[in-house]
């Protein structure tokens, strides 16, 4: 990460947060100096200014808000030192919080807590300062790339014209990151001797913004000239080869678990997909043991289910899960997890009416909730936010389990997930 200031982590009572993948990538670029002149996450005035005219309030051109969001109920406030951790729990930086907005925006300068431990090609994640020291006083031709380079002759000719060293900057982000780095290393071997490679975790933006950010990063690495490699042509595999999560949501007693189990059995009989069923009771007993039924713990349970389902889908599997999942924001988080690994997400709303669910009440839960014996019971004392983005809405009132399963199978077949 270069010669950035380091501190020791704050005490265990300090607020903490694990940013998402894009925020962590932006954090690395802030700490390394690749996002210079930015020193931290932008505040509301800065972000609004960037959105309007592409400049910070001080007039500095900057095409994209670099922001950090935390949930509305997170305790961090202005004046705090917010410790940022990676997904494995390692403390990587501290934000000296200058602003905390009602919608969750946290702003302030960042300070490194030490160079993070990276996975593949860690040796190539070098700061602008390190690369400039290596290349010396020669002019630099920087080539940013998100996929293979299609014209090495142009790069070679431009470098000769400028009498410049060539610096390949693979913009490695997400699951496809290692492939971009491999493409850069192959190109290096075919380019003039002395061509350097430095991995930059720049998350993709809209095309125009992405290009402007590439220019900023190239300049930070000392480029006098910048060439943007072509965007890779990606042809996603056919749906029946992609990972898929079928996510059932609905009230207790709606029939979602019954339909989900029936779908699992039907897919096993077909034998054309690798199928995993995340049973709610089993998840509660093994994955979420100790959690209560408070809103916080219920959301955490859904996130855990979503994480496991996304991992199944990441490797091409089909995961079925059927929690109540009453809150739209948490369902959106799960969709984001799944789509973030390159898989598909199918939301099935089992919209059986409350009175029918209460009539069934096989476990007597509604009666206990009505009597006040079960606090925060969805549909009675806690809300259920009906999905507006369901791929299938299914009312199980008066239909057989077989018919309900057929409805889901029809959607899977029409979408190409089943051959």
TrEMBL record:
<keyword id="KW-0808">Transferase</keyword>
<keyword id="KW-0597">Phosphoprotein</keyword>
<dbReference type="InterPro" id="IPR059117">
    <property type="entry name" value="APS_kinase_dom"/>
</dbReference>
<comment type="pathway">
    <text>Sulfur metabolism; hydrogen sulfide biosynthesis; sulfite from sulfate: step 2/3.</text>
</comment>
<dbReference type="InterPro" id="IPR015947">
    <property type="entry name" value="PUA-like_sf"/>
</dbReference>
<keyword id="KW-0418">Kinase</keyword>
<keyword id="KW-0547">Nucleotide-binding</keyword>
<dbReference type="Pfam" id="PF01583">
    <property type="entry name" value="APS_kinase"/>
</dbReference>
<comment type="function">
    <text>Catalyzes the synthesis of activated sulfate.</text>
</comment>
<dbReference type="InterPro" id="IPR027417">
    <property type="entry name" value="P-loop_NTPase"/>
</dbReference>
<protein>
    <recommendedName>
        <fullName>Adenylyl-sulfate kinase</fullName>
        <ecNumber>2.7.1.25</ecNumber>
    </recommendedName>
</protein>
<keyword id="KW-0067">ATP-binding</keyword>
<dbReference type="GO" id="GO:0004020">
    <property type="term" value="F:adenylylsulfate kinase activity"/>
</dbReference>
<feature type="domain" description="ATP-sulfurylase PUA-like">
    <location>
        <begin position="14"/>
        <end position="99"/>
    </location>
</feature>
<dbReference type="InterPro" id="IPR025980">
    <property type="entry name" value="ATP-Sase_PUA-like_dom"/>
</dbReference>
<dbReference type="InterPro" id="IPR002891">
    <property type="entry name" value="APS"/>
</dbReference>
<dbReference type="Pfam" id="PF14306">
    <property type="entry name" value="PUA_2"/>
</dbReference>
<feature type="binding site">
    <location>
        <begin position="250"/>
        <end position="257"/>
    </location>
    <ligand>
        <name>ATP</name>
    </ligand>
</feature>
<feature type="domain" description="APS kinase">
    <location>
        <begin position="242"/>
        <end position="395"/>
    </location>
</feature>
<dbReference type="InterPro" id="IPR050512">
    <property type="entry name" value="Sulf_AdTrans/APS_kinase"/>
</dbReference>
<comment type="similarity">
    <text>Belongs to the APS kinase family.</text>
</comment>
């Amino acid at each position: 990460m270069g010669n950035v200031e380091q501190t020791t982590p704050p005490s265990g009572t300090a607020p903490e947060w694990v940013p998402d993948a894009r925020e962590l990538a932006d954090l690395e670029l802030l700490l390394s100096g690749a996002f210079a002149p930015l020193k931290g996450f932008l505040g509301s005035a800065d972000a609004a200014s960037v959105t309007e005219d592409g400049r910070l309030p001080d007039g500095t051109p900057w095409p994209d808000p670099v922001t950090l969001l935390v949930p509305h109920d997170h305790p961090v406030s202005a004046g705090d030192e917010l410790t940022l951790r990676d997904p494995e729990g390692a403390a990587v930086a501290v934000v000296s919080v200058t602003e905390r907005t009602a919608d969750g925006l946290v702003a302030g300068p960042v300070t490194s807590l030490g160079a993070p431990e990276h996975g593949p090609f860690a040796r190539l994640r070098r700061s602008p300062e390190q690369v400039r020291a290596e290349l010396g006083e020669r002019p630099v031709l920087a080539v940013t790339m998100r996929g293979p380079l299609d014209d090495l002759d142009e790069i070679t000719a431009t470098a000769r014209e400028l009498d410049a060293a060539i610096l390949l900057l693979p913009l490695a982000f997400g699951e496809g990151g290692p492939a971009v780095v491999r493409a850069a290393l192959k190109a290096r071997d075919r380019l003039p001797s002395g061509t350097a490679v430095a991995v930059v975790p720049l998350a993709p933006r809209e095309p125009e913004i992405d290009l402007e950010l590439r220019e900023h990063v190239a300049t930070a690495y000392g480029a006098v000239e910048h060439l943007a490699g072509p965007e890779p042509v990606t042809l996603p595999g056919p749906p029946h080869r992609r990972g898929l999560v079928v996510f059932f949501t609905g009230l207790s007693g709606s029939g979602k678990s019954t339909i989900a189990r029936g779908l699992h059995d039907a897919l096993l009989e077909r034998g054309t997909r690798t199928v995993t069923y995340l049973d709610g009771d089993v998840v509660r007993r093994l994955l979420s043991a100790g959690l209560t039924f408070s809103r916080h713990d219920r959301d955490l349970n859904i996130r855990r289910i979503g994480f496991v389902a996304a991992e199944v889908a990441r490797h091409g599997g089909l995961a079925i899960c059927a929690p109540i999942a009453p809150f739209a924001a948490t369902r959106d988080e799960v969709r984001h997890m799944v789509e973030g690994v390159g898989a598909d997400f199918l939301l099935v709303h089992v919209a059986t009416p409350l009175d029918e669910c209460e009539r069934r009440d096989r476990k007597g839960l509604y009666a206990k909730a009505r009597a006040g014996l079960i606090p925060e019971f969805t549909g009675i004392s806690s809300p259920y936010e009906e999905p507006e983005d369901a791929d299938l809405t299914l009312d199980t009132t008066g239909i057989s389990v077989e018919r309900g399963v057929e409805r889901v199978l029809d959607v899977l077949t029409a979408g190409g997930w089943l051959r």
